Amino acid sequence: MEPNTEIELRLLIEAIYLKYSYDFRDYSGASIKRRVQHALSQFECATISALQEKVLHDPTAFMQLLQLLTIPVSEMFRDPSHFLAIRQEVVPLLKTYPSIKIWIAGCSTGEEVYSMAILLREEGLLDRTIIYATDINPRSLEKAKQGIFSMENVRAYTANYQQAGGQRSFADYYTAAYGYAIFDKSLCENVTFADHSLATDSVFSETQLISCRNVLIYFNKKLQDRAFGLFHESLCHRGFLVLGSKETLDFSSYASQFVPLVKQERIYRKS
Amino acid sequence: MNGAVDLPRVEAIVVGASAGGVEALLTLLSPLREGFLLPIIVVLHLPDERRSQLAEVFTRRLALPVVEAVDKQDISAGTVYFATPGYHLSVEQDRSLSLSLEDRLHHSRPSIDYLFESAADVYGPALAAVLLTGANHDGARGLAQVKRLGGLTIVQDPADAQVSTMPTAALKMHQPDHILPIHGIGRLLVELERIAC
């Protein structure tokens, strides 16, 4: 990397941490560098130092930058075979618990939350489940709470839902209006949306299942290990950990403390 | 070849290919024998319906071990890594691979530019970047960045490429160290490995 870029990038990330307590210091370097460079053009800053000065003195500008640093790319029932595997392999075991707590870590704008809630309702588990949906981005959490998604996307989600073993018409779960789908509020009755950072916060509850999908790819190995440590601490004995389809525990120091239940779908159990 | 004596000592090879890329990559990589020690990291754009066969096709036809890149995997000598369809692939400072889901670039995810730029940041002058056939403009910017950081750049001769758009776009942006037909690039890789290992 050009020496100045490397220095400026580290200083910006340090400044953000010192000023706003958002900790990107152990994020994967390549992606964070690209997002900062993208931000330079959005903010019309010639250098990362100029961007640093701007966000250090202007919390509104920082909130804008945060939207560019976090990646709200998500869809409902993303990787349908993953949700099918949860339905077939995990749900029968979850049914043995009188009450269930689920943590969706890095829930972004809520697509994973609604997917999980719909699946649990169809399996008769939603009423005895509490879902904690956490993210570091307050705007994403606000969107997640609202549960309003563009109809254009919902059409793609409908195909995913069906492939994931959905039992009803996907349209039963939302009301369409003005090009948007407003999801059934009752899906979120037992959902708590909360600000939580896998980089700086600690465990807040014992859980039976943790879903953290396409979040850990943005962390370096050290931060991934911190997150796996939190998950290990939070999960009950034999609790479930589900990851994104290209994420793995294999390179983590926690590898030996989980066993794959459906390896292909990245579904693990605490051993 | 413009004189093997001028070749630098590289530690990794990155390759980008799009339309026509499967054939070009098979031609390029199948002559490499077991024991070839440089890691080769490949972004190949594929239409959705061909995605699942990728690693399979190449495993059958290459002497080298072929894997689909996994997040946080260390880069090992003599292995061919293919970017996972649907994810960008980058090289990290600790010489591991990382995946990400940023927006598509040139309508593509994985993006050749992102692989080349991140690999250039890590390997600098010890990187060789190869851009092959394709129908879009991905890779041109990445190749220029590899050059800026001292790496070796190689573009498939547009006249030799099944689809010349991508190599032509790259040639408009910068003058690579070598413009060669696919067989010439293959010989160059063998030579690079001989010098490096």
How would you describe the overall organization of this protein?
The complex is a heterodimer of chains A (271) and B (197). By secondary structure, chain A is an alpha/beta fold. Chain A has two domains: 3-69, no CATH class; 80-270, 3-Layer(aba) Sandwich (Rossmann fold), CATH 3.40.50. Chain A has helices at residues 3-20, 29-42, 48-57, 59-69, 80-94, 111-122, 138-146, 151-163, 221-234; strands spanning 100-105, 129-135, 148-150, 174-177, 180-183, 191-195, 207-212, 235-243, 258-262, 267-270. In chain A, the strands form two sheets. A seven-stranded mixed β-sheet of chain A has the order 6-2-1-7-8-10-9. A three-stranded antiparallel β-sheet of chain A has the order 3-5-4. Chain A is globular, with a radius of gyration of 19 Å. Chain A starts with a helix and ends with a strand. The radius of gyration of chain B is 15 Å and the shape is globular. Chain B has helices at residues 21-29, 54-61, 112-123, 140-148, 165-173, 182-196, and strands at 12-17, 40-44, 66-68, 80-82, 88-91, 97-100, 127-131, 152-156, 178-180. Chain B has one domain: Methylesterase CheB, C-terminal domain (Rossmann fold, 3-Layer(aba) Sandwich). The chains are: A alpha/beta (271), B alpha/beta (197). At the A-B interface, α2 of A face β5, β6 and α3 of B.
Short synopsis of the structure:
By secondary structure, chain A is an alpha/beta fold. Chain A has helices at residues 3-20, 29-42, 48-57, 59-69, 80-94, 111-122, 138-146, 151-163, 221-234, and strands at residues 100-105, 129-135, 148-150, 174-177, 180-183, 191-195, 207-212, 235-243, 258-262, 267-270. In chain A, the strands form two sheets. Chain A has a seven-stranded mixed beta sheet with strand order 6-2-1-7-8-10-9.
